[in-house]
Specification:
Chain lengths: 245, 466
Amino acid sequence: MLEIEALTVRYPNQPKPALEGVSMRVEGGERVALVGPSGGGKTTLFRAINGSVPSAAGAIVVGETLVAQAHGAALRALRRRIAVIAQMHDLVDRLAVYQNVMAGALGRWSSLHALRFLIHPNRRELGEAHAALERVGIAEKLRSRTSDLSGGQQQRVAIARALVQRPSVLLADEPVASLDPVLSEQILQLLCELARERGLALLCSLHQPQLAMRYFDRVIGLQHGRVVFDRPVAQLEAGTLVFAS
Amino acid sequence: MSLHGLLVAWNTIRSFFPPDLSPSYLSYVWLPVVQTIGMASAGMVIALCLGIPLAIFVGTRAPGWRVVVTLLSALRAIPDLTLAILAVVIVGLGPPAGMAALAAFYTAMVGKVFAELFLAAPPAPLGSLRATGASRLSVALFGLIPLTLPDLLTFGAYSFECALRASVIVGAVGGGGIGTELVGAINGLDYPRATTLIVVLALLVAAIDTAGWFMRKHPRIALVLFPIGIATMILNPPQIFVVRHALVTFAAMFPPLLPAQSLARLPALIWQTLEIALGGTALAVAVAIPLALGSARNVVHAGLVAVLRRFLDVARAVPEIVWGLILVVTAGIGPLAGALALGIHSAGVLGKLFAEAFENVDRAPVEALAATGAGRLPMVAFGIIPLAMGPLAIHTMFRLEWNVRAATVVGMIGAGGIGEALYNAQQHMQYQQMMAYVAVTWLLVILADAVGERVRNRLGWKYVTE
């Protein structure tokens, strides 16, 4: 579903590449954790996958599409298939919850449809938002103002938005970085269930190795822009996940 | 507006071109420009000479200081153009009237703001000065002023900039300078010269913007206003400044009185004034939102931004009164011209503020929308506009308050509302009526400010972005 081959990314005015020769493969329904110190290239990798930063060498293929060749409408079509969940603060807090959830559909809606929805959402669209919120366990918040929700609830709204997008790849960038341990486990469990249930390729960056071991099928270590290991959880021991600085 | 009306308007606009650029006229035009700058300087010199002692009086909490604060606030609520109309009656047409109006308005402004700065000065050093038995004046000279000097200079420079801008428009009611020239050209149907003057005026306002920016960085430069101001005062003595005459004229304005017929029309006049303010603000918001989106760098291409920003600059640089003068000629006398004049100027102001609000929205949620594959328009509708809603509402509210003040004065050039009645009363020397309209204007402005403040407090709005 997601295939990366010898990817190198350079930022202008920086001597060292942010990513160098990174290769990996994530199948549909597979749950992969990405671990490593901050500045190791995790966020850059996500930005490269959805075409936000150009690659200097190598290739990223999502489904049948080569990311480097997608521009304009083709790039938007590609992004529609990749849902991104970031570490909070990526919701528009002044909108109602259902509006934030259905923003996941903006990629397939026409501009006119989007404007009409803002003014007068129809029953079917509200039903879709409700179903997505029900799946993440906060259906009762459908019409609340997003800023009135707690951090954990907002993260659930972000996940519901990703569901509405009907993606084939789900990228989660430190989805539990600002949540307490109990909430963190609930959110990760939810993400992993959804990936299995809908056959999504899930790539999730984390900085707690124990969580990676508990919920994911495979763990990839990224340090100084390079893949330092890529193994199924069964072959890993907790001690091997410590990085030399 | 009918087709015939449009044709007339079009022909009128055409008669403004080409501007009169003959050497003889150009060599004359610099005179009113210099006069305008001189009037602002003279007004500020007087304002500083009166305002600073008043501020010290308040700042040292001398007995009765609260009364002075109330009086200064009350004086500040009278629009500058309304003061200019009063000044014309007392000291006669021309620059002295403009200087007197600016002096009165800025005495109130300097007095109030300097007093607030003094009151907020750290109390400990002042207390120890007082403990030495120093007099009020010594406390001010050795404590208050040194402690607050940077703020005093910055605010002084800023109010000089405001006075320069106001100096351009007090002329519209006979207060001298370029404003008087412009009204003369328009009333004399000399439109090509009016165009020249409007261009000169726009350049002058742009120059004031630049000078203001420079003065806020180097406030001491504003000290040049002293020689310029004093020279202007010496060169333009009031024509009829005899104390007895002034007192008699002023006394003739009291008690303010409206004949029954005018009194019956008063509610309609007030309503018309509010309509001008509301209509102008609504028009400005409707125009400003698309223009601001088109001049926000995070929404459209930088090339379009540069073009649209120039448009906004022009709309903003020309004061409401000047737009009013042009519109009264092209769209006809009446409240529509007033609302349009306020609308165009406010669209320029709001357009710039809205564009800044759009550019300052939190980037993360907008990028998250882009990551779903959303197009540009949905991204604006779901992200940028809702995220900027708070600042947008606050700017609009402030503008509406300002526009109530402006709506009371655009009438003086024939654009309807209470200002027109005030101006007509002055022209017919019905000074008791005139004073009644001044009082109504004053109440309207105070009321608008109070209502605005209440609404903002209730909603918990502050004049900063979230």
